[in-house]
Amino acid sequence: MATAKEEGAVPDFLRMDADVDSIPAKLDRKGDWYGWPSTDVKPVTLLDDLGRTVRIRTPVMDLEGLITPTNLHYTVQHFDVPDIVPTDKWSLTINGEVKTPLNLSFDELRRFPGRSVRTVMECSGSDATFFEYFQGKGPKPSRTQECMILSASEWTGVPLATVLNEAGLTDKSLFIRAEGWDHGLPATAAEGTQPFFYDKGLAVHKALHPDTILAWAQNSQLLEHLHGAPVRLLVPGWSGNWSVKWLRRLEVMDHMPDCWYHYQFYYYADSPDASDKELITTIGVKSIITNPNDDTERMSAGPHMIRGYAWSGAGTITQVEVSVNGGETWAAAHIEPPNDRFMWVRWSYRWEAGKAGDYTIMSRATDEVGRIQSREPRYNNMRKNFSAIVGYPVKVK
Fold first, then answer.
1. pTM > 0.85: yes or no
2. Residues 82/66, Cβ–Cβ less than 8 Å
3. Are 336 and 255 within 8 A, CB to CB?
4. In degrees, to the nearest 5, what angle opens at C-alpha 362 toward C-alphas 356 and 368?
5. Distance (Å, rounded) from C-alpha 149 to C-alpha 232?
6. DSSP per position, 46-83
7. pLDDT digits (tens, 9 = 90+) for 12-49
């Protein structure tokens, strides 16, 4: 009979019949791995006055695979996190330009045919500090230490179109105003602005897309409160601010609603007074390098795998290219399957670092609609949707 001291044997404290008291208080995480849950990867969090986590930044550089664990998935909200509404007390109102106004309970919503959607979600403010770096006004931000407002999950719920069809749209149904339970007043709001519920006005064509859903589950579990429970809106391919959490009301309208977080915050323009503001919707085409990371200052000569992620809000990723000489020449990377419509992809490139020297590693993504990741960001006074190519220096010794 094998003992725990024999190579490959399972330690006594991990046997099914082991005494719980025999489990060591601390395990050597540097040795053999026997399936003990890892606590090595932690997000950057912001706590409220009561010590509760209210914001999370995802340690993307420390993760593998495509799905972000729920406890590491980023969270952002503009107002205070609202009180918990139990599922048996929650309801969703659908009114406005509809033939039959509805008021659905949680159980009634779950009686519609469901749908699961896997999507990358990115905050418009992710990597905002790179704008200053590109303008020569600050140092290059650290991918490893800063963490990102960027994650990916599988969401389960019901298509928004199914619920809207149940209510019955009219010829005047052009926008759907989604309202959450989070309530407050923006710090930069004009004097006299009254507190309001966070809201967004979704164009009907995006609302009726089959992958736009009312989600009640994330990564196979019912939503956690910080992620928008009991039900949130999920708008894949668009910046995360469209996916309204803690959903309470859907108002169907014949015009675009005047939501504060449209042209006062999430827009492209050179100044707050610009007359040509463009509403931010679709996520840009983007790629990042996760290996080597910011902690890699030197690499040995020989073969290395350069790895990373690539994604786009407009379509699947069709090509990723890698440059090791600052963009002078590019080579195709391998896109690792699967390659889902709204998800990011993992990519890899085998680099033969043949001689010592200084190198600048870059990646460049292309999506199915022909968008190519650019060398320069789309500058805007709100510092939103950064997606430019960033180079990372490494020294081969």
1. yes
2. no
3. no
4. 145
5. 18
6. EE-TTS-EEEEEB-GGG--SSPPPGGGS-B--SSPPPP
7. 534 444 444 444 444 444 444 445 555 568 898 999 88
